[in-house]
UniProtKB/TrEMBL annotation:
It comes from the Eukaryota. One of its GO terms (molecular function) is L-malate dehydrogenase (NAD+) activity. Belongs to the LDH/MDH superfamily. MDH type 2 family. Keywords: NAD, Oxidoreductase. Its EC number is 1.1.1.37. This is Malate dehydrogenase, cytoplasmic. Residues 111-274 form the Lactate/malate dehydrogenase C-terminal domain. It comes from Cherax quadricarinatus (Australian red claw crayfish). InterPro entries: L-lactate/malate_DH, Lactate/malate_DH_C, Lactate_DH/Glyco_Ohase_4_C, Malate_DH_type2, NAD(P)-bd_dom_sf. GO terms for biological process: malate metabolic process.
Length: 280
């Protein structure tokens, strides 16, 4: 078996961290043949809860877990690590937008399920759906460049659905408001899907993207697609050797550009708010 990877999970006693521990320890992220040493970090008041998480890790006998280090000391948690999930933060509550958390937390998910349900096909048969912009109610899910396997043939998602009103209306709204809908139903913010998205991200970084595929990630904007530079913005990217590159040259119509610009404007406002918080 390969040498173990040291993986840090912050906020490990929280909802998302709890889900992440199982996914990483089971081999869903770095592969079933790659052992991991888990570095679990949380604040001192949460150490009793974190110790309970460690008990569960032991009880689960997760096949890839070589060792577990539980600590409230960042110097210990981050020592010699090769990968980190930074997920500890103040939870979002009902009625809150993500920007409402900026004063407390100086902070993508995939939407293939929406499309696969509309087409009646497995989610694995949909690729290259894009999330542009912020992780907020202005994010823009875009299927103009996506494809799906329908009846054994690869077709454009837009052409397969043939419902412009849905793709420019209900589909976008359902994705933008999904987090709020989960909170309204559970009275808690989403954790399982957030952990799954983080694991998908890390696996894409670790393994790279396959030929003809791209994924959406929040990366520093370089001004591509006439968007402001220097903000963290979700773009379609390809990954090779653990380095991402923004996909260039995708045709963008007026509707898409307007949606992308709207999310960029909000991100710039949030950046300015975050800077103001840091300077207080």
């Amino acid at each position: 078996m390969a040498e173990p990877i040291r993986v840090c999970i912050t906020g490990a006693a929280g909802q998302i961290g709890y889900s992440l521990v199982y996914m990483v320890g089971s081999g869903a992220v770095f592969g079933p043949d790659t052992p991991v040493i888990l570095h679990l970090l949380d604040i001192k008041p949460m150490m009793t809860v974190l110790n309970g998480v460690c008990m569960e890790i032991s009880d689960c006998a997760l096949p890839c877990v070589r060792d577990v280090i539980a600590t409230d000391d960042p110097a210990v948690a981050f020592k010699d690590i090769e990968s980190a999930f930074l997920v500890g933060s103040m939870p979002r509550k009902e009625g809150m937008e993500r920007k409402d958390l900026l004063a407390a937390n100086v902070k993508i998910f995939k939407v293939q399920a929406q499309i696969s349900a509309k087409l009646g096909i497995p989610v694995t048969d949909v690729k290259n759906v894009i999330i542009w912009g912020n992780h907020s109610s202005t994010q823009f899910p875009d299927v103009r460049h996506a494809s799906a396997i329908v009846n054994g043939q690869t077709v454009s998602v837009y052409d397969a659905i043939k419902d412009d009103a849905f793709l420019k209306g209900e589909f976008i709204t359902s994705v933008q408001k999904r987090g709020a809908a989960v909170i309204a139903a559970r009275k808690l913010s989403s954790a399982m899907s957030a952990a799954k998205a983080a694991c998908d991200h890390m696996r894409s970084i670790w393994e790279g993207t396959s030929e003809g595929h791209f994924v959406s990630m929040g990366v520093f904007s370089d001004g591509s697609y006439n968007l402001p530079e220097g903000v963290m913005y979700s773009f379609p990217v390809t990954i090779k050797d653990k380095k991402w590159s923004i996909v260039q040259g995708l045709p963008i119509d007026d509707f898409a550009q307007e949606m992308m610009d709207k999310s960029a404007k909000e991100l710039c406002e949030e950046r300015d708010d975050a800077i103001a918080v840091c300077e207080d």
